[in-house]
Hints:
By secondary structure, the protein is of the alpha+beta class. The chain has a single domain (6-172), classed as Gcn5-related N-acetyltransferase (GNAT) (Aminopeptidase, 3-Layer(aba) Sandwich). It has helices at 15-26, 31-39, 47-61, 106-120, 135-143, 159-172; strands at residues 6-9, 67-71, 74-84, 89-97, 125-128. A 5-stranded mixed beta sheet has the order 1-2-3-4-5, sandwiched between helices. Helix 1 crosses helix 3 (47-61). It is globular, with a radius of gyration of 19 Å.
Amino acid sequence: MTDEIILRPCRPEDLPAISALTVRAFAQVSIDAHLERQYGLLRATSWGERKCQAILGEIAANPDGCFSALLGDRVVGYITTSVDEQAGIGRIINLAVDTDWHGRGLGKRLLCRAFECFRDRELPYYRIETTTDNEVGQALYPRCGFAEVTRQIVYFMSADEAADWTHTAGEKQESP
Length: 176
């Protein structure tokens, strides 16, 4: 099963594979991917470029809490984390598993590895977020003990839409 997969801290040589996996794994569930489908490229950068840059930053900021899952020399999954010492929260920021490995326990293994890191830092709380269209995450996280706390709605508009609205709203205001 997943016994042949090795989990280890992310290394620089993993980054191209992590970036490619990121784009595949989050294409249908990323908020920024949804925005791009509706509004096009934002400042000439794709959601995938921005997401990969963010993940590289997460790995650089917390190298001891970010792990690659390798089958031989192939990255088949990864997890990135951050720590809020003040609140005592270990946060799983990103978790991605190659679709060929879905349903084989690799996501759970990556979560367990993150939990070990959080326990080593004596963090009493763990947090993960997902979107409502991420069916894999919504199934996995409760099975791993997470409880849903709330749901968030993301609203978005362009500056042109705001200008149009402001102009229209201004016309409807009463003058003194």
